[in-house]
């Protein structure tokens, strides 16, 4: 449907090959990469990583690209919906994802050939592998967001007009909600109501599509890209800030102390204000569930859907929005997006989708890489 | 009020006598295996040196690393049963999951799941199944469990499953130690449950140690109440400590930093604590240590304690100094507690950082003649290397680009250079070597709230006030004098990806210890 998207540069294009299975040895890099691609959101990867460690120790999970599946193979996408804080109490379970996938299979009348990844940022980069292991299926090397995004309509499939339904939600208490059909307008309100009824979080399966559809409308190779990004981060995390940024293919936008924190309220964005201790610049980072935009001395240098990461200055651990505190010294990094969204997606994944009006950079500072991400990876 | 502060570390037991802002006396003794022997020696020494009148003491504050050390060594642990309410949820990660095997075995490792628990809004996942719980309890007892750790999903929101189960245990097994997760940890089931399990496993040791402490203090002729330092720099009375030994875990670094700040008369600074093997750098904001943003593993077990944010490097007074191929390296190898036999100045054969300090004339320890032969270039290179790495560590920790006051404490603090880059000044005090004991002595009573609140429209201030009031009430319940309690920290973090306005609110209050007014004057 969209030519530019299909030919979008891919970080692993030059890499020897994509992953063909996930093993326990891949887990630290997968978790680290997923945290970075969370762009400050996407939920803590620690719990699914803990589950996955036990799962992968029993048997590796096969990984398959859409291109290697038959044209009409069925891929069902799975992940966690709702509040990650709920999961930290009401621990996730692989079976819940598997039940949701099976409910979608029942509604489509077909069995799935692979489990797809909805978002490659945060804990949902890991959850599909749990579902795949439980169902005895491969996990797809690709996703629908190229990062973490808060809304279920912010996918390449939704943008291209593919329906999310049939979709299913399950709770660990044994509840299953199946929505066989619904209009695009009703997807988000139904999800919200169901998630609330299921205790603030639920396992979700949706977007049953063919491999052929994903070849044109999916984001290929993102699981491999996530693991490779994590590997680069783990190898470079002790390096000085500039070198860390260079080795991640990122730009270092700010190194400074958080002076002020304005929390988000409901759907209204919040922000943190920093003082860059290198040159005294005043830096504002807008946030909602993820870090959305970085504005330096009045000019926006990076914005969603590009990836913005805050790491602790001491130790370089990535910080989620809910871990930012006044007085903490952080580095703000701008990572190239995994996926080049077309201009018509601006209303869906750009700053306007969050009600932000920003001042783009003029010529005197480097333009944000959002429109045409530069790749430093080899 | 006259306060006696005691710090029982792994190697040394320190004691200080404090009135208001004045340190009246300080002493150091060797820690003994029974914990109390070092205290007896220290108190006797303090009496001889400063004419201490036991009857004049108004309160005794003790900080100890004994419990965390016992866990790390895996010794003296009770056979513990973990019983969690959460089924059918949480079954994929049962209690004791991912504990190191030797520790799990040492702590009994009995793990059980029951139905129940709550959702984040306080509604039940399922009803309390009394028959199921009684059957599990029987199994645990038959398996040899002596101590019980109860956890329940979202118990910080609603603790009814834990309290109901505790009542049943109290009826069935009168006097059996029971630890409840909602009283011990915060949000995050596995971390809270692990902290509760550790607490349960330490209960029999805690009975023994607290009884010993009470007896030792009484035998010294002291009639004042005894308190123990908690992780957050506040106090608990000895009976509370008997039931919650895990609350002492981070008290060592916390006391060290707070004691240092007290000595330097500053509430915001970097504290550089140089021991025998490592240098620990922490940040004090408003008189309390900045907390780490990540979960802390203790003896390989993930907990959700908030520990002070401390960055450590392998440089201490006992660090080996090696000079090869024109490069001078300090640490991380160290002679540790054997400094007084292995260092050159004490007649040993290992060149250590302490020898370098003596050769440079910074310290007068041992026999300076034994290091007179060291080349000036070696001494300078070693000192420069140490200063550089300390400056780098302070730089990574400090909260702003502006230079901060640096407080140097610990036995090896002579290694901190006077002109440390990034420090507005380097503060030292004559009592820095007993900063931990001072930190214990100056501690206050505190209370904390940390849970999810639903914030309706226009209710934000009311909810924050409710959290503040609850923290204040808890501080008073913990022994603070009502008029002195203040909120030292309040934080509101909205829950991500959840429509509506649920937020996690955390408030902390502290106040001066009330001792019934008798000794307060």
TrEMBL record, chain B:
Coiled coil: none
Hydantoinase A/oxoprolinase domain segment(s): 192-365
A single MF term (Gene Ontology): hydrolase activity
Residue ranges of every copy of the Hydantoinase/oxoprolinase N-terminal domain listed in the record: 4-172
InterPro entries noted in UniProt: ATPase_NBD, Hydant_A_N, Hydantoinase_A, Oxoprolinase-like
PANTHER family xrefs: 5-OXOPROLINASE RELATED, HYDANTOINASE_OXOPROLINASE
Entry protein name: Hydantoinase
Organism expressing this protein natively: Streptomyces cacaoi
Phylogenetic lineage: Bacteria, Bacillati, Actinomycetota, Actinomycetes, Kitasatosporales
